[in-house]
């Protein structure tokens, strides 16, 4: 194949984000043969719902030393330190997307860099393609955490540009090729505890409805129960802490909400979005628990957040979402926005009651010991002097003053 | 009652926003007796779904001269010049509310001021209370359009502060009191072609679910058809122009979408929001057609709007929504934002296909002669050189440069 | 005079922001006579450059109990906790104004409320007029810190609306009237360690140049030394800590910069600004040390702040400045912005060298142990591989992709 | 030298941005020899102050056909369609820089693309290096205006990476090398009617003061006249139209202000800025007329712009400036912002009086037929009822309401 001498840099040891699947197995072998370097595998449980131990076995078969095989359960860290902080911001990319793939990448890069330090590796490698956002997210995070790290992105480098070439390479190198991977997959997916995304092939015409078989995390709303289900979520300082009154860890809570969302067909999104690399792509996202959580968080903020804080958050949220989408989790401006957002959450505690029904998810009640909602002030009934309606006259008059001066000019 | 001499200003002729209902009838009489001025009534059809001719009859009964009774069908102007421009911005107040009440107020004020000019009135009057946003919206618009106009807000001035006092006043002055108005209404509503809002009384505890009888514009999702319905909406330059291929005027289109939304239980929102006057209130909104339209507009923008334009719009939208909510439609900064938004809509043309089902509303397809989505560029398949994956390496390297310099400092 | 019974509320004890001057002496007496309440005086040294002890004597003469006379030196707190945090934001109101008056008001209110708690007062009073911003700033801060406090703003209440009436009242009540206060002052001023502002009367025509005699804190640039002076300011974590290498407390540093600014005629600003209460006003500001400090802070940020952080700060700064100008120092949204800004300052340490000359103030050098400026990367000379110019091609290609897709549509 | 076969694409005809200097002459020859393509030269007069006819002669000597030599005076278009629209925004990059280089690039690209169309060229070429912003600006503009154009950036491609190699190439190809170009230049410059920038070499240490010999457009403030000079600038709809009452075209006005600025030492800026390509660089800018114009424009806006418009402009300006700096002049989001900004300028007409003195530039008066400043409203004197001070009480009360509700929660 290609000449190792042409590789830009000599690599001694590389940490590969390794799923155990065909593609990253090919990458593993390719790194060994092309770069002639030692490969360290890292396989993360982010709640994607797959067994991880097979990855260990496969890595061993490909000659990876046992001490170079890292398999970590990152589910709690993922939800606690990445998903929940993001949810505090009510972040939606392009108004609709809950950023399920974007938010997982910085955590994977963080572990890659930690492991690289631990094993003395000089490079990291990932299996993201050259057209997507994930390469950007992986690499920006890696460079931010270790500016001297080398990054290998085989999909941008190698000549295995067709499925056939990939499978040939696999067969040449005794990498088992599962039957269902022999043909072209009709779409590609990414999954973690927050969401499953699907894109490519059968989804590439944005006028065509997403076929039913693409969905894997939610029932079709038409097949959801005919009776609504009511739940409560408790929040403390902006983060969910209990479901139906039962205290849960972050990952446990999100997993439980995923089950509820799956059952009621909640969180499907068919989206054409703008990638950071400059093109539009069409994806399908299923974010069952995240959709419920997002709306619940808005619900509890409604009674616990001051208007000034709430509106500032709403103005900052699109930028914050864009930063996460583009891969700038470990950038100072994301951290600055996070500092502002986190400051606002000190009193975002209380309980939200929600109705789940056939794809829909509705806040139907919220209460809090920290509520700023004052029935006494707002009431249509006599408010016992809590609010003097005559104040409104002056309020309006001074708000109108500049408009009146403008009107006089035009007049 | 109170002494006319105490009124701050002598009024000769006032134009009253008059619905024909009990409250504005009392106001009409009160203006006649308190201010001793001539009253001109203005009744607008904004699609609230009530007969307007009875208002004429009632006004006549209260001594208003025929040439002083104005009844206007403003539905097309409302949708074309207010609702659609706002929808171009994807405006949501506090992330969720489609601003159905807010957007109607400036139009009413505009007509009040026009009529005042026509009949030589020196004042306008409205029936909004002193705790709400509507007083602000009416008055800011009125002052912006005529800085010398006087505004009378009876609810802030009079001593009819209880329902009993109001009814007594009505009876003293031979104003008919409908039976259902004798008791306290369990909630109050506002309606127009875009939405119906309800608030007060039974809705004042934000932990209590909104009772079923409060809803009037939509069926309960549980009672909606068991089969989804698919529709298409065509857009031209950012505005809806056809439903299922049939060309429609703005108001006709919105009315037709309302029917669809009603049938499928779409557009219910239970919200605790922050009023401009400083308090939180809990409302229930039904925006059936508007909800469908809003999502469809986002759908067509997904393929026709450049990322730079789309993200700038998303960042400006919360401010734009806040301005409309607070009553600043006729303020220069709203017009500036509108100029920016309208500039972005020149190519927002095409067709969106949507699925309506039991409260849910989903974009399932979109196409456009102006599409910026390029299957050729995005495809997982061979793209024939439309995109050079190696460009991504340089793109990432330069985006990472500042983060690496940061990392070196910390390192 | 007016009837105490008409006062809206019974006041027992009020803390008055008392300067010892004629106006607040009249207010003191008026509070005693009108409200019949006990008056507590609070006089703050914010660096306005006046003796405070005479205020004690005057208060005693008017019957204030010694334990009810509070005189505090707040200079260090003012600069450390208000001026410096604001300077971290590079805040300029309407692009030009360094907010010298605005930033002092929340501190005064904070002490008023603290003293009210200490002495069991139920109200505070201030001498700001009903047309200005200061009433808003005082009262918003007071209400935020104690929502139940009562606020008395005599200028909005009393009938002493002419200078003559005020002086008559003073004479009736044996309040000494200095000779220079008998006539109308040609302008009014406010001063503290950060600035002196002047407005009114001779300044009211914005076409007329500010007369020379209005300036009090700076020499005319024409009269400044003919030789430039060079200084250095050291910063640590975003705050100034030393002048010309000599460590100084915040207030000492600002005072020393004021002396330098005065000498070189730095920091004069003739401005027409937009008040929060809706009108435009013309003011003259002298901010000698603050102007130098502001530019120096930008100078040190240039080499220590990452681009993402710097640009986010620049986008947030106008809003932050508006909040301070409008009196929302103690509002959650100001605190959120402060959290974001403060997060950015951790590495803003180093030394700035400045040239002062005849009204001008120029950064001429900056260095920092935390510098992000890399001569190695930026150099026109051979950079030994620190930057690969070919990366720029990919960077540009992907940044251009969306524009090319747009161009193809138009083409 | 290098092998033409390795060039990525076959080019038939290229339009080169040609100054006539050594570097672009080498590029011209290199294009001929490396790409073997026909070269078209484009030389623009943007007010850089150099003779353009020598460029024609040099191009002819290098074999360019007369009909392929384009020399255009773009000064009026530059100021009218680029500088003035930008000045309407009060745009400052990183708070200080008036964007003199950035704003010229899109115009050059526009003409390159126009000429390419005219002569049937398939490529354009420029002399910007691979580390700077200008390559990005040239190329983004070119791609936006013609998505199919090819761009050649010799500095990123060739192997003439040292001064010696460049001069050797020149000598090999009979390109005359002026004596002062034989050695390394101590810094590099760019100039146009708006500014002169200098960077590199002697400026690379940001702690070292910029040497005096680097300045070329302004006298040292110490050498400026000892007497201040007063001038007036008239504006119409946001653009300057007259100096000292004499009507002038845009370029004439800017040139006249440049003379004034030069004489008084106005507009020097020593800046460390953040480049779009990810590094910090130190530059020195001289923007004599632009600095005066910028401040004058703010001055006229002070009395003619409503607060809402002014504050929105201030919030949008950093983004707008960043877009221009980064090269996105022809991007939809820049155009959207321009639409908003331009909308605000309809009444920005009137006269500003300024004082110029030893590096300083001060607005000392402004007047306008459209003024929104109302002496009647703002006056300390009796305002005859133009403003009711009691309105302020209600205004403050309702602005404080949410803060009081917050305070009660904490209380």
Tell me what the structure shows:
The structure is a homotetramer of 411-residue chains. In chain A, a hairpin with a 2-residue loop joins strand 9 and strand 10. The N and C termini of chain A lie far apart (79 Å). The longest helix of chain A is centred in the last third of the chain and has 20 residues, at 307-326. Chain A has 2 domains: 13-86 and 104-181, Rossmann fold (3-Layer(aba) Sandwich), CATH 3.40.50; 188-304 and 347-367, Argininosuccinate synthetase, chain A, domain 2 (Alpha-Beta Complex), CATH 3.90.1260.10. In chain A, the strands form 3 sheets. Chain A has a 5-stranded parallel beta sheet with strand order 3-2-1-4-5, sandwiched between helices. In chain A, strands 10-9-8-13-14 form a 5-stranded antiparallel beta sheet. The first copy, chain A, is elongated. Chain A has helices at residues 22-35, 53-61, 75-88, 105-119, 134-145, 154-157, 163-172, 250-264, 288-304, 307-326, 332-344, 375-378, 391-410; strands at residues 13-17, 38-45, 69-73, 123-125, 150-152, 188-191, 196-199, 229-236, 239-243, 246-247, 268-274, 280-286, 350-357, 360-367. Chain A has 13 helices and 14 strands. Helices cover 41% and strands 19% of the residues of chain A. Mean pLDDT of chain A is 94; it is low at 1-5. With 411 residues, chain A is an alpha/beta fold. At the A-B interface, helix 5, strand 11, strand 12, helix 9 and helix 10 of A face helix 5, strand 11, strand 12, helix 9 and helix 10 of B. Chains A, B, C, D: It is found in: Cytoplasm. Chains A, B, C, D: Its EC number is 6.3.4.5. Chains A, B, C, D: InterPro entries: Arginosuc_syn_C, Arginosuc_syn_N, Arginosuc_synth, Arginosuc_synth_CS, Arginosuc_synth_type_1_subfam, AS_cat/multimer_dom_body, Rossmann-like_a/b/a_fold. Chains A, B, C, D: Homotetramer. Chains A, B, C, D: Residues 187-404 form the Arginosuccinate synthase C-terminal domain.
